[in-house]
Amino acid sequence: MIKSYGEFWRHILTFNAKANRSQYWWPIILNYFLGGIVVTMIEIALGHPLETIYTWSDLYVNNVGKFVVCIVWIGTWSLKVRRLHDTDHSGWWILMQLVPFIGAIWFFILMILPGVSNSRWSRNQNQL
Predict the structure, then answer these.
(1) Using CA atoms, how far apart are residues 46 and 40, in angstroms rounded to an integer?
(2) What's the number of domains the chain is made of?
(3) pLDDT block averages, 10 residues each, the chain of length 128
(4) pTM of the entire structure?
(5) Which domain, by its residues, includes 114?
């Protein structure tokens, strides 16, 4: 779990490798829970929702939060492409998520498929 999460951050801009199921799902799950915990703690400390801006410090916290979300989004994007490579699909299949409802279901199915041993992408992210 910790190893997969460390690899997520080390290979944040790696698009030309593969990621197996555990290397994909652990960072996705951990980012979801850690994000919820951090946002809740910040909102408790501020005393109001993050989107509400009353002072300059609220604006600063809001902008830092947006920056962190952008970094995590880029890392998740590259991780999804690596996971698609493990199932021997092109990274362009990520655009399937843009199709309402059916696209999300189809993409989820692609993420839970087992990896292919003779994939076009030969290296796993932990071999980089």
Answers:
(1) 10
(2) 1
(3) 91 91 95 95 91 90 94 96 92 93 94 86 73
(4) 0.88
(5) 2-127
